[in-house]
What we know:
It comes from Flammeovirga aprica JL-4. By secondary structure, the chain is mainly beta.
Amino acid sequence: MKLLSSSIYRYCLLVISVIMQSCVSANISKEFENATLRFSRGTPMPSSRAYMGYCNTSKTTFVVGGMNKAEEHYNTILSYSPKNDTWNEVTPINIKGEKLINTTISSGSMFLFNGTKGKEDDPMASIDVNVREVAFNNRVPELTNVSLNPQAIHKSSIAEWKGKVFLFGGRIDDETYSNTLFSFDSKKKEWKQLASMPKQMITYGTIVHGKLYVFGGRNEAPIDEIYMYNIKVDRWVKVGKLAEPIVDATITNYGSNIIIFSNEQLFIYNTDKGTLKRYHTNVGKLVGNGMTVSEEKLIIFGGVKTNSVGKEVYSSTVYTLDIQKILQ
């Protein structure tokens, strides 16, 4: 009886702590800056591409697949060294030529989820059900199918934490958005379904200190809420609202800060203080781009840019910024 009471007591304390965090975090201070963050330009990618997978280590950024203006799909994995400002291909790896691949690094390997050759806005297009592991640190890199995705889905999002990969949201078909959250153990290659998101939606998220934060997105309408999932207690709470919906974004994190790029603006959410800052940039309007942090630099690359006359142009441009400039 004492053991049972002790377990219930600890669980109640965890739930109370989540509720208290929700109440505190809901008071978000939105600081809108007039200043423009000016990115420098690095060596361009070997080819213009958008809607690619991407991930990073502390020293290297990887670009996986994607497509070009002619809707040709790339089957290569590229690596970028910010220190040397150079691009290389991870050989002899050739993936299926796909775009919209969810990519992350976990337990020392790269993992690829989803991916499609279908039209960008066609959620009914065939989604790759294979989970692929890329041993990119091997003397001869290897690509292996290691599992099947229990819910391969269009425009799902991805985040990694301590050997677990979390996939959430996305679009199932023309009329149905997903609110599912799954975790994948990158060592055991095992899946687990977790607490469903508060809404069915495409959204953008990353994990800081054991908590998954998701920002905006869309379903039948644009979304302006910020939700947080506590991995320890398997529970979602709403922690705030954006000043305006974010419907297309790339996201990464550095320390306690979450960095979001959307519509040529950069948003910095500090998870410790619950503050949200917004900056203008000189990057321009991009969609389908990638964003990572490697070698203490924030790196934005690729995507589809709208030029001064409203024409869409596939980009190979690489923009870099000292990460400390946005944390002051």
